[in-house]
Amino acid sequence: MKAAPGAAAAFLLWALLVPAGAPRAQGKDDIRLEDIEKEIAQKVERPYSLGGFFEFQPTLFGLDRDAAFYRLRFLDEDEGATAAQYDLRLRLEGSYRKDIFSLFVRADALTTQGDLDSESRLELLEGFASLKPAPGLALDAGKKVVKWGKGYAWNPVAFVDRPKNPEDPELALEGFYLLAGEAIRSFGGPLRTASFTAVALPVDKDVNEEFGEADHLNVAAKLYLLLFDTDLDAMVFTGGSRTTRFGVDFARNITTNFEVHGEWALITDFEQAPVNERGQAVRRVKDVMSYLVGVRYLTERETTFIVEYYRNGTGFTGEQMEDFFRFVETSDTTFRSTGNPTGIRRAITLSEGAYGRPNPMRSYLYARASQKEPFDILYFTPALTTIVNVVDRSFVVIPELTYSPRTNLELRLRGVALVGEERTEFGEKQNDYRLELRVRYYF
Amino acid sequence: MRKIPLVAIAVLLAAAPAAALDGTEILKKVDANLQPESFESYRKLINVEPGGARREYLLWTLKKGDDKIASLFLEPASEKGRATLRLGDNMWLYIPGVGKPIRITSLQSVIGGVFNNADIMQLDYHVEYDVRTVEEQGGEYLLDLKAKSTTVAYDQLKMWVDRKTVLPTRIECYAATGLLIKTLYFKEPKAFDDGRLRPAILETDSPLYKGYRSYMVYARIKKRVVPDEVFTLDFLPRLETMR
What we know:
The structure holds two protein chains of two kinds.
Chain A: H1 3-17, H2 33-44, E1 48-63, H3 68-74, E2 82-98, E3 101-114, E4 118-134, E5 137-144, E6 176-186, E7 191-203, E8 216-227, E9 230-238, E10 245-255, E11 258-272, E12 284-298, E13 303-311, H4 318-338, H5 342-351, E14 363-371, E15 380-389, E16 395-406, E17 409-419, E18 431-442
Antiparallel strand pairs in A: 1-2, 1-18, 2-3, 3-4, 4-5, 5-6, 6-7, 7-8, 8-9, 9-10, 10-11, 11-12, 12-13, 13-14, 14-15, 15-16, 16-17, 17-18
Helix pairs in contact in A: 4-5
Chain B: H1 3-34, E1 39-48, E2 54-64, E3 68-75, E4 83-87, E5 90-94, E6 102-103, H2 117-120, H3 125-128, E7 129-137, E8 140-147, E9 156-162, E10 168-174, E11 180-191, E12 197-206, E13 209-223
């Protein structure tokens, strides 16, 4: 694996130094209509497609050896101040269609080598068959991402999807095995579109076992309306694997460059078991609400701002999270001084559940500013993102540079700094910072 | 003495609607000559940088009626599967694997370069613009167009139209401030599948992107009417199945 970083660096150098396209004669571009027509004729009739990308991502982690999540992961081992990791990913996407039938597959082969982790795995992200007897009617069966909700960083109404990573919300998600039917109708007048989607999602010990309680067939449905130029959705989920939940969302362009969106979800009988500082859990069951409001604004200088506020009804309060961190501190001190692992083992189990999930608390603010092609540099986009935990005032700052020096090649350099006091969400994460370079070549 | 101004006013009142009507008719004819009301097309978008480097995109597009356009990116690989939808003033972009289609604005560009979303998902001109004045300039008409609403990407257009073919030769696009945003040049008239003669190449440059040029090359335009349901958000991920 040691060759991988070197090979990737050589590839990167080639990509940057070899000019894309031959120089043209001054003031004259070679646009030949006949050539383009021939090229298109060859490509348009194919019933199949195959593509994807190679990705190389070296990452440097700055470890926070005093943080709770560092101690939970490494106990009393000292991993040093920094750790490196190299990820190589091959993404394959293929499709085939014949008449009303089509197939789609998206899969990853990933290998990770680094100071902290080394693993290789194959992952099917999506793989499903579709029947489309009419343009307004479709049936899908297989592993699929359903994509409900209008939020950019979070989707509280995405009842049958995995959660996005708000630090990188555009990453492709892994789907669940399901059966989905969709009917669409268009109209004249203020109601332009109505569609209805129904989903059946089984869970047992071998299928969708991460979704929730096994041996249940869950069902979900969504009604979408484009009414008075506003996207509106209403959705419901019920089944034994998770409790029943209801949701609505909307999105609308107020002006051509200003969009507003929102989501609201009611999760019934939600069970939470926060621990006190001695690690004792108190089980509570109640209905909770989650919601999100957001805007997207484009300035005349092509700066895009995305701002979202997320109220996570399923999250912990500041006090509950502090109690958990106190329990980790006590358990860690006991383990170091007496060797008794009982407390720290329980803390590790808790950290693998609700306390360790992304955004485990109640209230978050997401803000991102990205500038398209500043200084007339085409295909270059710098961006700055922050995610603030409004409850404990800890936050993440993510500066990012994305550049595509040639067709199908994309480079992304980003830093992630986690800032927070003791016993705050981002202050107690395993890392203080992360530096990563992502090189993607699409084919 | 009183009769003369009254006559003049009457003549002006009679002449003004006539000029406006002529201009509108010319504009409608321009639209009809450029493309059928409902069609599918294959287009290549080419961005050329000052150094000569090129970036090319292949798009398949469906249009229906006055206000429905859906486009699918077939190339390059990095953009493949992306789809855009326009319903009147509403525009969305679907990126495979990412999530629900997101709303986008007419002044953004899904491809970078000089063409923005309004250029790529162009509606008929008469749908978005009123004709303010028409002038005859040699073998051409010069139409001064004003956007019907503030949601239109360019506030004003100056359109030069060939009097014989009633096809545009050049369009200057202005912001509300009077700033020239870009100029579109219509080139290489060619007979398409329906026998219609229309420019096959649309070239653009912009004082905002000095040295950069973009081309939109129409390779196929064919009359095709598909159900309205194709132009919906939920259908966007399935757009490929209509090719």
